[in-house]
Design brief:
- This protein has 12 helices and 14 strands.
- It folds into 3 domains: 109 residues, 2-Layer Sandwich (Beta-Lactamase), CATH 3.30.450.210; 68 residues, Signal transduction histidine kinase, dimerisation/phosphotransfer (DHp) domain (Helix Hairpins, Orthogonal Bundle), CATH 1.10.287.130; 155 residues, Heat Shock Protein 90.
- The mean pLDDT is 86.
- The chain is rod-shaped.
- It is an alpha+beta fold.
- The protein is 55% helix and 18% strand.
- The strands form 3 sheets. The protein has a 6-stranded antiparallel sheet with strand order 1-4-5-6-2-3, sandwiched between helices.
- Bound molecules: adenosine-5'-triphosphate and magnesium ion.
């Protein structure tokens, strides 16, 4: 009851979903921007304000009114009176006549006219401020039974300072708006891209074979869609890890467990052979022995494969002279091949050194050469060749057999895989060991059918040192 209510409340949290998050952030940013632009606009359209006169201004107004009254009495026209007094006292004096015409120069701005209107309407003397301009008035003046109104335009002392203040204020607000909205956008962008980047890093490290890689807590603990994706990813990674580990463990256990009964079988076989006086059962015993040896070899291969896959294979790394190694392999293979009316030839040898484990690397290439001898046509030749390819050396083994059906090519390096056109008994482990061993040396291996018929296996290995060519053939 409690729990479901809590869950319901949680589902209302807009930050718990990506949509909600994006919506809220954008919306907030928009609100902040529009609020600030409203404020800035208000600054532009700052209205005038009416205040009371101070004593000094009150006095000034009254004094001017009396002066003007005197001039008018003396027979000046209103315009003459304000001009004369203006020049005399250094003031901008204006008069509103009984018909509400404004007398005086220069002609004030539109906003000033509004201010004057408001001052006249209020009926009592006031001050009206706009920016650095301050109007005083309107002081009633009676002349020949009619009412005029006296106004004086002054400027506030720190006028330019005030103007700069206003401008500065506007700039500050605009800058603030940019800063705040920029920061909000940056936060949003980061809150989306950072977890995705972390997810990508995790998936890459998983793909590299680091099965224990998991999404960092900052991602998987998020309440939104990305967090859920992170949790799902972790579940997937966990499942994959346990499956693969179980499989590898099984393989390695099977190999170990098979080995001991097989050894006992072989010992018993030897004893039986010694005790057997009559020859009748000997062919069967020979057969049992052959099968036992085959099993033994296969289990040894399996064990090696499992060690390589689990990266448990000990590697005795040292600089190896590739030419020397290939020559030994070619000679041995040629010797075996001659007995089957086939031959093995080592073509060009590039003089390079590679860093590797002698036994492991030799057996990897031997597996390929042995296959080639097995599948090449009778009377034909297997060619081993090398070439430099950037900072890698390319070792190719090519035979004159029937090749592999194209649809089988991608699976050739899988354990226990045998191509559909194969009739020769083999366990299908040789090439998978080759691939694992080559990859343990940071190399790659690929297979392709050649147009003349036959298969070419190419092993690419990083070169550690290029020897002077005289040390080659
Ligand atoms: N040179 C080749 N020509 C044609 N097919 C080949 C060649 N080399 C390998 N293959 C095919 O690839 C399959 C896998 O080879 P791999 O060396 O892994 O196993 P295998 O030779 O059958 O057995 P193992 O080497 O374990 O005794 C072979 O069964 C065969 O079908
Ligand atoms: Mg083989």
């Amino acid at each position: 009851m409690w729990r479901s209510a809590l869950n319901w409340l949680r589902s209302l949290n807009p930050l718990a979903s990506l949509t909600g998050r994006i919506f809220i952030w954008f919306w907030l940013t928009l609100v902040v921007i529009s609020m600030v632009s409203f404020l800035v606009l208000q600054q532009w359209a700052r209205p005038y304000e009416l205040t009371d006169l101070n004593a000094e201004e009150q006095q000034l107004l009254e004094y001017q009114r009396e002066e003007l009254e005197n001039y008018l009495e003396a027979g000046m026209t209103p315009l003459q009176a304000i001009r004369y007094s203006g020049i005399r006292f250094g003031l901008d004096i204006y008069l509103v006549d009984p018909t509400f015409r404004l007398l005086g120069t220069p002609q004030p701005d539109q906003i000033e006219l509004y201010m004057i209107g408001a001052m006249v309407e209020s009926g009592e003397p006031l001050a009206a401020n706009w920016e650095n301009i301050r109007w005083l008035g309107a002081e009633p003046l009676r002349h020949r039974g009619e009412t005029y109104r006296v106004l004086i335009k002054t400027t506030v002392d720190s006028g330019t300072g005030r103007l700069m203040d206003v401008i500065n204020e506007r700039l500050t607000w605009t800058f603030l708006a940019l800063l705040v909205s920029g920061m909000l956008s940056l936060l949003l962008a980061n809150s989306l891209s950072r977890p995705l980047r972390l997810l990508r890093e995790t998936s890459r490290s998983l793909a590299r074979g680091q099965l224990e890689s998991r999404v960092p807590g900052v991602v998987s603990k998020r309440a939104d869609d990305i967090g859920q994706l992170g949790q799902d990813f972790d579940h997937m990674a966990e499942r994959i890890q346990s499956l693969i580990e179980a499989q590898q463990k099984l393989l390695s256990n099977i190999s170990h467990e098979l080995r001991s009964p097989l050894t006992r079988l072989q010992i018993a076989l030897g004893i039986a052979r010694q005790r057997m006086e009559q020859d009748t059962a000997v062919p069967q015993l020979d057969r049992i022995e052959r099968e036992a040896q085959r099993l033994e070899a296969m289990i040894a291969q399996l064990l090696q494969l499992s060690r390589l896959e689990n990266r448990l294979q000990h590697m005795d790394l040292q600089p190896l002279d590739l030419g020397k190694m290939l020559r030994t392999i070619a000679d041995d293979a040629n010797f075996e091949a001659l007995a089957q009316d086939r031959s093995v030839r080592l073509q060009t040898v590039v003089p390079v050194r590679v860093i590797g484990d002698q036994m492991l690397l030799s057996s990897a290439i031997e597996n390929v050469v042995r296959n080639a001898v097995k599948y090449t046509a009778e009377g034909s030749e297997v060619v081993i060749d090398t070439a430099l390819n950037g900072d890698q050396v390319e070792i190719s083994v090519q035979d004159a057999g029937t090749g592999v059906p194209p649809q089988d090519l991608p699976y050739l390096f899988e354990p226990f895989f045998r191509a559909s056109n194969t009739h020769q008994g083999g366990s299908g482990l040789g090439l998978s060991i080759t691939r694992q061993a080559v990859e343990a040396h940071k190399g790659t291996v690929k297979a392709e059918n050649i147009p003349e018929g036959g298969l070419r296996i190419t092993v690419l290995l990083p070169v550690s040192l290029q020897l002077p060519s005289s040390s080659g053939d």
